[in-house]
Amino acid sequence: MQRPRRRCEGTAMGAIVLDLRPGAGIGPFTLGMPICEAFAQIEQQPNIYDVVHVKYYDEEPLKLDIVISFPDHGFHLRFDPWSQRLRLVEIFDVKRLQMRYATSVIGGPSTLATFVAVYTLFGPTYPGTYDKDRGVYTLFYPGLSFAFPIPSQYTDCCRDGEAELPLEFPDGTTPVTCRVSIYDSSTGSKVGVGSMMDKACTPPLPAGSLYMEEVHVKLGEELWFSIGGQHIPFGASPQDVWTELGRPCGIHQKQVDQMVIHSASDPRPRTTLCGDYFYNYFTRGIDILFDGQTHKIKKFVLHTNYPGHADFNSYMKCNFVIHCSDFVGSYNQDVNSSKGTITASSKWEQVKEILGDCGRAAIQTQGSTSNPFGSTFVYGYQNLAFEVMKNGYIATVTLFQS
Fold first, then answer.
1. d(CA 368, CA 397)
2. Residues in the chain with pLDDT < 50?
């Protein structure tokens, strides 16, 4: 039910030159792009991006950025953990990366990114700011900033708040860039080092974009599923799904129904091959399972794409909202119906507060070799099942009809 795992492999390493686009991105990486698209760009050039580190906060994945780091080339890509879109590019070692702007280059081992070189290439701008605690002067252009360390003996050259341009120190030397930040400038925020880094926001999605489109599920006497305002019922045909969602990214034949052994009422032999098949909508974070005999929908699977799960980067995040107000009565009489919603950001403890305790979990694992992240836990309720990671966040939600 997944496409081949994306890998970042390569054999060669060398100096690279990337186009610098203030307010837009660097090289093939564009501000606002989903993390899956960034990995796709990495895969297309494995000989360049041959050492790639992915960093995230395992215990609270929504608390800190998801970071793709290229240590050999000296830059980071920072993705907002909620939307999983690129919000900030940081060049943290300017001597390792050469940047091309217009017809000139700056940075890298051969072209020092001095204050004079930056000012000459990018032109005049307003005086920057001086952080006396960090000893760093930051110069700002629209969607672009350069940070320069100021030696302690020359701090008098800069004043608090807006500072004069430190083109040269009294000894004739000029400061050299220690960090470059590329960010969206539409909000007017100035982004730099330290706390100023948090001001970088993802740019608005383009008009008509389907990324992070809300998927609504209503639990009650009648279970229904809605995406883009279109109702897709259980029992719908493949033609109906094509009409509403378009061509699937992939079609996957389900070989064996692993859950049939738990159903005492199912008359099929326990070794029967399953003719059911999935429509995979990787770019929407959704799988739809059709019955192999009737060709009608029997399951929906919604993916959250959290790092630390075996399916990370196989799907984009599904931005689902499950409305449970009509469903909670038989489980938890004390829940306020106005709070009876479950989203892709909900934790398992919040789900239990809404739906009540459902008992023991089934253990799901793909084997230690193919899944280095360990097992997940599957909890079942009437018409839906939650796959929960060890940190308490939801990995997938499966909707079905009992």
1. 23
2. 1-14, 259, 261-262, 271, 329-338
Strands 66-70 and 319-323: unpaired
DSSP conformational letter for 119: H
Helix (H) or strand (E) holding 338: none
H or E stretch covering 133 = none
Chain CA centroid to CA 61, Å? 10
Task: Please choose, from the candidates 91, 99, 17, 12, the residue with its C-alpha nearest in 3D space to the C-alpha of residue 51.
Answer: 12
Residue 119 has which token pair? 């000012």
Is the separation of the CB atoms in 15 and 55 below 8 Å?
no
- pLDDT digits over 9-49, tens only? 333 344 689 999 999 999 999 999 999 999 999 999 999 99
pTM of structure: 0.85
Residue with tokens 């041959």: 50
Let me know: does 381 contact 402? Beta carbons within 8 Å: no
Summarised one tens digit per residue, pLDDT across range 310-361 is: 999 999 999 999 998 655 544 443 444 446 899 999 999 999 999 998 888 8
Beta bridge partners of 288: 279, 300
What is the set of domains in the chain, with CATH numbers? 16-199 (2.60.460), 214-261+273-327+338-400 (no CATH)
Strands 214-218 vs 319-323: parallel, antiparallel or unpaired: parallel
Yes or no: say if 353 and 331 are a contact pair by the CB < 8 Å rule: no
Measured between alpha carbons, how far is 331 from 339 in angstroms, rounded to an integer?
A: 15
* pLDDT of the residue at 374: 77
How far, in Å, are 195, 202, 317 from residue 191 at the CA level? 9, 13, 27
Look at strands 224-227 and 214-218 and give their pairing: antiparallel
Amino acid of residue 111 = T
- Per the document, the length of the chain is 402
Determine contact, residues 354/189, Cβ cutoff 8 Å: no
Contact 384, 399 (CB under 8 A): yes
Question: How far, in Å, CA of 288 to CA of 279, rounded?
Answer: 5
Supply the pLDDT for residue 79. 98
Determine the Cα–Cα distance for residues 28 and 49; give it in Å rounded to an integer.
12
Main-chain phi, psi angles of 197, to 5 degrees? -65, -30
